[in-house]
Amino acid sequence: MTEPLVLGIETSCDETGVGVVRGHTLLGDALASSVDEHARFGGVVPEVASRAHLEAIVPTMQRALDDAGVTLADIDAIAVTAGPGLAGALLVGVAAAKGYALAAEKPIYGVNHLAAHVAVDTLEHGPLPEPAIALLVSGGHSSLLLVDDLAAGVTPLGATIDDAAGEAFDKVARLLGLPFPGGPPIDRAAREGDGASIVFPRGLTAPKDLARHRFDFSFSGLKTAVARWVEARERMGEPVPVAHVAASFQEAVCDVLTAKAIDACRERGVETLVIGGGVAANSRLRALAEERCAKYGITVRVPRPKLCTDNGAMVAALGSHLVAAGVAPSRLDLPADSAMPLTTVSV
Ligand SMILES: Nc1ncnc2c1ncn2[C@@H]1O[C@H](COP(=O)(O)OP(=O)(O)OP(=O)(O)O)[C@@H](O)[C@H]1O
Ligand SMILES: [Mg+2]
Asked: What SS3 class is residue 316?
């Protein structure tokens, strides 16, 4: 029996994504981004994002189907991000998915965007061994999760108590005069710098913090430390060594993320670490995770950078996993839930 053909729709933030997956194989993927329209504001403007989704959704859908060489009639199930994310942006995707599901008489799955960031790795590395620890690092979230059964739910072990990792990249990039979103330009600038040149703080790693926040993160103190350091240089009339600051900031983030992820694997006796979300595209994070996990016999799985940031393939991947696990579809009146908890994988 051939595996079901699942289409995934993603509109939770500023990327309109549609992907088509059969089993663990990505057949087609299309993306339209409104990122350039937000750049001058230094962050995503919700209303601008919603309007851009509305314009992009139908053509993006068609491009993904064409890319996969299938038609809507061939699709076995439609998955859509139902949350968390920007309310207006989510609504566009959910309404579109309902329209297509109703018109083509297909089952619909309203899924969690964050679980999809974890599930996307199956398109690259096949079924996820369970239990696994997932390090989810994106623009809005930074969490460590225990994944016993991705179709049923995940167990949060810890999360950021202030800024998300991606948010820290975006804010520090702004301080350094680099464009939005800040992750990619910091990653590039850091290659010319020395990550050991400036010692920035590692949030929630002191023994007194570990007692209460062993698997939690904090990046706002780091961001402030970078701001103070840059201001001090400017006050002295000295040029800011952007590459060194970028590399040292990046090192501080990656050091904490990998150390806590490995600690979680060891505490739970888990041998697989999967990293997902936009920050998983970071080259230093990928290298450091590989290097450190190898020492403990932990296998690291990180999808290719293009699959780390928001896309439709990740939603299709999670949908495909749910269909294979025999999870019942959502009701056609499923809501968009901007604050959907991490523990809800599908509605
Ligand atoms: N190479 C990179 N290094 C570091 N950060 C990166 C890199 N590429 C992208 N990012 C960061 O990833 C974030 C975007 O990731 P993603 O699209 O998963 O977030 P989001 O969808 O906005 O948030 P969420 O998934 O929490 O709703 C941005 O903050 C961006 O700066
Ligand atoms: Mg995301």
From this structure: helix
